[in-house]
Design goal:
By secondary structure, the protein is of the alpha/beta class. The protein folds into two domains: 7-92, Alpha-Beta Plaits (2-Layer Sandwich), CATH 3.30.70.100; 106-267, Oxidized Rhodanese, domain 1 (3-Layer(aba) Sandwich), CATH 3.40.250.10. It contains nine helices and 13 strands. It has helices at 21-29, 54-65, 116-122, 136-141, 158-171, 184-193, 206-213, 245-249, 255-267; strands at 7-15, 36-42, 45-52, 74-80, 88-92, 112-114, 128-132, 142-144, 175-179, 200-203, 221-223, 225-226, 233-234. Strands 4-1-3-2-5 form a five-stranded mixed β-sheet, with helices on both faces. Helix 6 (184-193) links the parallel strand 9 and strand 10 (200-203). It is globular, with a radius of gyration of 18 Å. The mean pLDDT is 93.
């Protein structure tokens, strides 16, 4: 990746049935020249983050949108001071985001997408339970005001929190509003939660889209947003902060393991 040009980071995902994942991987690989990042493909769709100069990012986004399975895919761009990735990795996975429950089909239906402007009004309502659908270390670094931390160490643990509380929410006539970094975890969770017959809303495009669309996002947000690359965290204006890995993981039950893993990925990204 050339260091002489400004770097851009773009994040994207789309739930879209893929009949031949291996062929799609080959096709995507042809779009990633001069880029670094991480892209996951699975029978349920694509999830990825890549970085490069603006010409490379423009070409990649145009090429990905031209693939029929990914028409309409959205991208969330941000600037980089730190090089986010060391290599380009494209991998096949069973799921693009593992909820830990088999058979969840997001394309069959999910919760109600709420735009950033509508979200601001929604989370002020008394009958809304506001859930942070991320790990506890992410919540600790930054969160929407009045959001609940389900206290999970892994996304796969989130369904257990929901199952333990959904009867209470229903008996109290509550609606559930969820948010996550880019939106993908909430889409998967809300698709599963349809079986509980409780109204579920999700922030369209996640926290990053809220920061992009709401210039005064700090009115509703405390702290920073953890991102899964070497930049570590962004503020509400999508600018890289001075937060370190130690700041993120200090005091976490599995913090030492996470810190070791993050340092390894920063240095090698294998």
């Amino acid at each position: 990746m050339p260091n002489s040009k400004p770097l851009l980071h773009t994040a994207f995902y789309k739930f879209s049935p893929l009949e031949n994942v291996d062929e799609m991987i080959d096709q995507i690989r042809g779009l990633t020249e001069n880029l670094q990042g991480s892209i996951l493909l699975a029978p349920e769709g694509i999830n990825g983050m890549v970085a490069g100069d603006i010409e490379a990012i423009d070409a990649f986004e145009t090429g990905l949108q031209a693939i029929p399975a990914f028409v309409g895919i959205t991208f969330k761009r941000s600037e980089c001071k730190t090089v986010p990735f060391k290599k380009m990795k494209i991998r096949r996975k069973p799921e693009i985001v593992p909820l830990g429950i088999e058979g969840v089909d997001v394309t069959a239906g999910m919760g109600i997408n709420v735009s950033p402007a509508e979200w601001r009004e929604l989370i002020d309502q008394d009958d809304v339970v506001l859930l942070d659908n991320r790990n506890s270390f992410e919540y600790r670094l930054g969160r929407f005001r009045n959001a609940i931390d389900p206290g999970v160490a892994n996304f796969r643990d989130f369904p257990e929190y929901v199952k333990a509380h959904v009867a209470e929410w229903k008996s109290e006539g509550k609606r559930v509003a969820m948010y996550c970094t880019g939106g993908i975890r909430c889409e998967k969770t809300s698709a599963w939660m349809r079986e509980f017959d409780v109204p579920v809303y999700q922030l369209e495009g996640g926290i990053l889209n809220y920061f992009l669309q709401m210039p005064d996002a700090e009115k509703d947000w405390d702290g920073e947003c953890f991102v899964f690359d070497n930049r570590i965290a962004l503020d509400t204006h999508m600018q890289e902060t001075d937060t370190t890995l130690e700041d993120v993981y200090e005091g976490e039950p599995d913090g030492e393991w996470r810190l070791h893993r993050a340092r390894r990925l920063q240095g090698d990204d294998t």
